[in-house]
Amino acid sequence: MALTHKRDYGWWLGATTTDMLGRSSQNLALPFTIVGVTGSTAVAGNIQTLGLIAKLSVILLGGVLIDRMDRRHAMYLRGTIGAVLWGILAVLIMLDIVPLWGIAAIVLLVSISDGLFGLADNVALRSIMRDPKEYVQARGMSQARDAVVQVSGEPIGGLLYNLGKSVPFFFASACLAFMTFCAHMIRADLRPRPADEEKENPEGATATDTAAGAGGTGNSSTEGGETSRHPIRAALADTVFGFRYLFGEPRLRRLVIANTFIGSGMAAVICAVNFHLISLDYTPLQISLLSVLYAVMMMFGAMLASRLSPRLPGGKTIALAVLGMTGISTLAVFFHDYSQLLFFLGIYGLFTPFIGTMLGGYTFSIIPTELQGRTSSAASILEYGLTAFIPLITGNLVYGGNPQLAFSIGVVLNGFAFLLLLNRHVLSIGTPSTWEVA
Asked: Is pLDDT of 370 > 80?
């Protein structure tokens, strides 16, 4: 990995790590804050669903924006908006004037900001690491980082919540502010580039190198002045193009749909665990400790994925990982006391990094950077369209005394994903050295 790439990757890792730490802190504290105000896990699930629906409603527009703007600026905007809003909620909690509508409004606004600009950081990594093998290894290291954050993030969130109900939200605000600083320190040009330019200059350039010569972002669906004359028509055309690109190739189509079920299945398992244990009066610290073993195993899995991924066939590796996740989800339906869930989540975490490294690495590697905002938003709207209802469904099932049904949702979703992956187009995906920009 080149020295410049290492430096920029370090700042990117710093930006996304602090973002994740803040997110872990507020994600743990938010349900407890809502339950403390309303006394209902169902209301907590409903507000989380409201936030996901808000994010879903703007994510396609967000994909178009990210393909038309410097991804660095998108990171600035999301960091600033989130820092201000979580800071406001923290002050309201500290002053003990927290109406339910106020929580809902802040969750709604943060979710809209995430929908518009939240894809920018993942897309930016592809502008920093342009070689597929380096990119997959970087994703593997990022998966290990994810595990470290999960080991520390939720326990930190639980500890902060015990120190004061407002403290996790102050922490989330500070993390987002620091994220904007890290984004500023990245030297690479984070603007989208046309596919032909990527092939001619795969190593990329710094923002300074390209500032004078960059004449546009290479939008595939707009020509000349169409964007300025008909911005709405151009945005719609770009959005449609993102879907057409994803679904125009059989292998990519199956991977996108399978990833929708995988992401929703993971959300179902986590939501079922959290709401089930909250309903049994476990403390935030106890629930956060459940994530520690999951994250430790995820860290081990991420190290394996980073080391082994250059030599593993992508398609078969993804399918085997999803099969393992389906088996663990099935066991949780029948055995879900605290110690059993502790064990199951640990094993679940072992498989998770292989999905992110191989499936995510493959799709990001073969899609040109100029299209990654639109294609990412198109894929995300499918996933969030399903995931948006997971907190609502699992929260109400647990509240109604049906935890088995809540846990079974993860089995069904992971099972569908596995069946989709049993296809020659997917199973024939080779090692990362064979992946090329389409």
From this structure: no
